[in-house]
């Protein structure tokens, strides 16, 4: 029974059998064809027997074909993650194989089918990529291989049970990319602008020899007189500033864009920004909230702190109620006493929605440097760029212009009360947020 469960008839055989049925029908009309049809059928049966013997003949105890799936221990949300299939042909003839990989149901893909031809004792690797759009646990099933001889009449199924549960974390691949570019001073490649430093920090570092290009206003005349050489005061960026990302988990962050929710975009941007802040010698923290306060990670700069932030972000989920900004303000006042940079990731669709929360935002801005980060509706922008060709499209475009204008009014309203704002498309969120942080740091505002 095990043998028959592993044996499959190829499409080629089914087509030949249909052809034989037609030939037998034709032989009843022309009896002279009947002996030739029987002979051909006998040849087909003999070839099928030969094919089966080649597939199941096993002179050694080990399996005649081997396959293995190689994938990372964890996947990065919203990124292309590599998956490799390792194949090894142990047959004494060239084997043609079909590989079906049982990937997690979250991908909603039923076409993960690959074909390959391997020479005797040849190994081959097949590589493909998967892009998860939700955080959580993903279950990978078996790797199914259907091997065929050069005759391609029968298939033998090999099933390699590689059941594995892999966790999908926030976009750590994007975080590493920004980290490497920051270390090599190439952040401009991902849209990070170079900001001209205005003045200098007041944190004194050392007295050193003058170099061409140094600000003459920093010349230390007493040291110059002692050394008989131009000496200047060197300053450095202020360090250990507290940077907090406040992530709204309410229903406004549930909207999808290219498979990811707005919450996932905010989580990925938070991960990158926190890592950049730690590289800049600042302290990174995190607070999540919805109708109730979620998790608080105090701003620190200790070994393993980035892993702690990653673990907290992995567990966050959107909720269905409106967020409570009064509870957010109360919690900030209780737990964050030092003046800090607060980046609030949320979304406002109308000015009225902003005005309901504006009193709490103004109170936060009195104690901290507050930046409100919210999202453009990119579909509205696309609709506005397309010309209207009917009365219905004119109405749709008019309504779209109203909502698009509301977003601009929200920015103006926040600026009126001294609150900085970032209105950005979801795909540009990370770059725009890091740009703003570096700009404020260069201006000495944090």
Report what the structure shows:
This protein is of the alpha/beta class and 446 residues long. The protein has three domains: 1-169, Immunoglobulin-like (Sandwich); 172-196 and 239-443, Rossmann fold (3-Layer(aba) Sandwich), CATH 3.40.50.410; 202-237, no CATH class. Helices cover 38% and strands 27% of the residues. It has twelve helices and 21 strands. The strands form six sheets. A six-stranded mixed β-sheet has the order 18-17-14-19-20-21, sandwiched between helices. The protein has a five-stranded antiparallel β-sheet with strand order 1-10-9-5-6. A three-stranded antiparallel β-sheet has the order 2-4-7, with no helix packed on it. α6 (262-279) packs parallel to α12 (429-442) and α8 runs parallel beside α9 (351-367). It is elongated, with a radius of gyration of 33 Å. The termini are far apart.
Task: Indicate the topology.
Elements lengths: L1 H4 L1 E3 L1 H19 L4 H23 L8 E6 L3 E3 L4 E9 L5 E7 L11 E6 L4 E8 L5 E5 L2 E6 L5 E7 L3 E6 L2 H12 L19 E7 L11 H7 L3 E6 L5 E7 L7 E2 L2 E2 H18 L3 E7 L3 E8 L4 H10 L10 H11 L5 E5 L5 H17 L1 E7 L2 H8 L5 H26 L3 E5 L4 H14 L4
Parallel strand pairs: 3-11, 14-17, 14-19, 19-20, 20-21
Antiparallel strand pairs: 1-10, 2-4, 4-7, 5-6, 5-9, 8-11, 9-10, 12-13, 15-16, 17-18
Helix pairs in contact: 4-6, 6-7, 6-12, 8-9, 10-11
């Amino acid at each position: 029974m095990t043998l028959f469960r592993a044996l499959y008839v190829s499409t080629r055989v089914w087509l030949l059998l249909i052809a034989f049925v037609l030939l037998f029908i034709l032989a009843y009309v022309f009896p002279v064809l009947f002996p030739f049809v029987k002979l051909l059928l006998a040849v087909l049966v003999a070839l099928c027997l030969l094919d089966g013997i080649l597939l199941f003949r096993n002179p050694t105890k080990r399996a005649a074909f081997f396959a293995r799936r190689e994938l990372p221990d964890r996947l990065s949300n919203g990124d292309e993650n590599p998956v490799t299939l390792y194949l090894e042909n142990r047959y004494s003839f060239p084997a043609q194989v079909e590989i079906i990989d049982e990937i997690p149901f979250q991908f909603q893909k039923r076409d993960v089918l690959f074909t390959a031809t391997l020479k005797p004792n040849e190994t081959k690797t097949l590589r493909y990529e998967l892009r998860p759009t939700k955080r959580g646990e993903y279950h990978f099933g078996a790797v199914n291989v259907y091997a065929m001889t050069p005759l391609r009449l029968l298939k033998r199924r090999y099933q390699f049970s590689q059941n594995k549960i892999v966790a999908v974390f926030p976009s750590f691949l994007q975080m590493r990319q920004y980290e490497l570019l920051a270390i090599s001073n190439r952040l401009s490649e991902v849209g990070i602008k170079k900001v001209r430093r205005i003045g200098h920090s007041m944190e004194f570092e050392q007295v050193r020899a003058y170099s061409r290009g140094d600000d003459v206003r920093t010349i230390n005349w007493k040291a110059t007189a002692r050394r008989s050489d131009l000496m200047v005061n060197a300053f450095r960026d202020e360090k250990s500033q507290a940077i907090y990302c406040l992530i709204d988990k309410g229903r406004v962050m549930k909207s999808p864009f290219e498979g990811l929710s707005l919450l996932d975009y905010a989580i990925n941007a938070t991960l990158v920004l926190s890592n950049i802040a730690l590289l800049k010698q600042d302290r990174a923290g995190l607070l999540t909230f919805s109708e109730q306060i979620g998790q608080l990670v105090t701003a620190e700069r200790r070994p393993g702190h980035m892993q702690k932030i990653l673990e907290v972000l992995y567990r966050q989920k959107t909720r269905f109620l409106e967020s409570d900004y009064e509870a957010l303000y109360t919690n900030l006042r209780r737990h964050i006493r030092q003046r800090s940079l607060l980046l609030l990731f949320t979304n406002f669709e109308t000015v009225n929605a902003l005005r309901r929360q504006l009193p709490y935002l103004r109170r936060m801005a009195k104690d901290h440097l507050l930046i409100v980060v919210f999202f453009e509706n990119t579909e509205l922008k696309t609709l506005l760029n397309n010309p209207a060709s009917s009365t219905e499209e004119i109405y749709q475009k008019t309504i779209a212009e109203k909502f698009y204008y509301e977003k601009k009014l929200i920015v103006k309203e926040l600026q009126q009360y001294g609150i900085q704002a970032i209105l950005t498309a979801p795909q540009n969120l990370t770059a725009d947020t890091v740009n703003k942080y570096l700009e404020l740091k260069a201006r000495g505002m944090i």
